[in-house]
From TrEMBL, chain A:
F(1)F(0) ATP synthase produces ATP from ADP in the presence of a proton or sodium gradient. F-type ATPases consist of two structural domains, F(1) containing the extramembraneous catalytic core and F(0) containing the membrane proton channel, linked together by a central stalk and a peripheral stalk. During catalysis, ATP synthesis in the catalytic domain of F(1) is coupled via a rotary mechanism of the central stalk subunits to proton translocation. Key component of the F(0) channel; it plays a direct role in translocation across the membrane. A homomeric c-ring of between 10-14 subunits forms the central stalk rotor element with the F(1) delta and epsilon subunits. One of its GO terms (cellular component) is proton-transporting ATP synthase complex. This is ATP synthase subunit c. It comes from Aliiroseovarius halocynthiae. Gene3D superfamilies: F1F0 ATP synthase subunit C. NCBIfam families: PRK07558.1 (NF005733). It is a multi-pass membrane protein. The keyword Magnesium does not apply. InterPro entries: ATP_synth_F0_csu, ATP_synth_F0_csu_sf, ATPase_proteolipid_c-like_dom, F/V-ATP_Csub_sf. Belongs to the ATPase C chain family. Keywords: ATP synthesis, Cell membrane, CF(0), Hydrogen ion transport, Ion transport, Lipid-binding, Membrane, Transmembrane, Transmembrane helix, Transport. The keyword Signal does not apply. One of its GO terms (molecular function) is lipid binding.
Length: 79, 279
């Protein structure tokens, strides 16, 4: 019985730790967007053509945060 | 002139109406405050799939709220793109100009990101974009159901893209498609290591592609529901979370569009990889 309780506890602690990854992805997304803005303010005429690149960069940075979200989901509902 | 005077006359009335609504919200918060605050609203209940015509059985072909809102999304797309732009006027009506805007937007995206020779596959990407954007926006209607908040739906969309792009890559380039995994710009000893990483990242694509959309939709709607729970629990001060919900809702409208855009732009990127696999 103790073991089951410990497993449940570990599950929730693990899901909470996995949520840290989402915060890390947030840092990455902010980095991409901030650097885009810094570049765009230096050369505004070239910025409009690069918005697609911005979103692709954000999507790739976000993908790794999604894996931590996936780990949290798996721990909560699948394990 | 009449318009202007009506506007000037309407100002105070709108203000009074606003305060009346605010007072009603306050009053209802005081009257309907639950006995056990915090338990009144479950944020994940809105994603529950229920059969449309009663009963508890969920078979393969049971019509559910999921299918209903997917059909409504398709009906909305048909209304906008077929019925709305039927006039083909030179000076477009509102519906026609929205349809033309959407068409031009997606067309330009495919052309810019995936290249000129990918324009052949524009109808598929347009379909994906319109379906996702309509499902997202319909899901923002209060008490409705967000079809794209379920990984089952987005995973199928992502798998269609993944399988199509992989098959297309092999059909267009033959074995040369494997060059996508062989980074010829890197030094030779490093290439096998990079190949393993590239292969893993290739097969992980549909996972991130689908969970990004479903996760964003689910999280946004759950946040709104959590704040609704605060509003129910706070009673007299329930209007404060409601103001926060208004702000979150505005953000969700933005997210609903951006996620549809990101989904289709990533499809374009994968399509480009399939057509030009040289690394």
């Amino acid at each position: 019985m103790e073991l089951v309780a410990a497993a449940a506890l570990g599950k929730f602690i693990g899901a909470g730790l996995a949520a840290i990854g989402s915060g890390a992805a947030a840092i990455g997304v902010g980095h991409v967007a901030g650097n885009f803005l810094a570049g765009a303010l230096r050369n505004p005429s070239a910025a409009a053509a690069q918005t697609a690149t911005l979103f692709i960069g954000i999507a790739f940075a976000e993908a790794l945060g999604i894996f931590s979200f996936l780990v949290a989901l798996l721990l909560m509902f699948a394990v | 002139m009449a318009d202007q005077s009506a506007k000037q006359g309407g100002g105070p009335i709108i203000k009074i109406a606003f305060f009346v609504v605010l007072a009603l919200v306050l009053l209802s918060g005081a009257i309907f405050a639950p006995e056990h605050p915090g338990l009144a609203i479950h944020p994940m209940d809105q994603f529950e799939i229920k059969p449309l015509f009663g009963g508890d059985h969920l078979g393969t072909f049971t019509p559910t709220n999921q299918t209903l809102w997917m059909v409504l999304a398709i009906v909305g797309i048909v209304l906008l793109l077929v019925v709305g732009s039927r006039g083909r006027a030179i000076v477009p009506t509102r519906g026609q100009s929205i349809a033309e805007l959407a068409y031009g937007f997606v067309y330009k995206m495919v052309e810019d990101v995936a290249g000129k020779d990918a324009v052949k596959y524009f109808p598929g990407i347009m379909t994906l974009f319109m379906f996702i954007v309509f499902a997202n926006f319909l899901g923002l209607i209060p008490t409705s159901f967000t079809a794209t908040s379920h990984i089952a739906v987005t995973a199928v969309l992502a798998l269609i893209v993944f399988v199509f792009v992989t098959v297309l890559g092999f059909v267009k380039n033959g074995v040369g498609f494997l060059g996508l995994f062989w980074v010829s710009a890197a030094p030779l000893p490093l290439r096998p290591v990079l190949a393993i990483i590239e292969i893993i990242s290739y097969f992980v694509r549909p996972v991130s592609h689908s969970i990004r959309l479903a996760g964003n939709m689910m999280a946004g709607h759950a946040v709104i529901k959590v704040f609704a729970g605060f509003a129910a629990a706070l009673g007299l001060f329930g209007f404060l979370p409601i103001l926060a919900i208004a702000a979150f809702y505005a953000l969700e409208v933005l997210v609903a569009f951006i996620q549809a855009y990101v989904f289709s732009i990533l499809t374009c990127v994968y399509l480009k990889d399939a057509l030009h696999p040289s690394h």
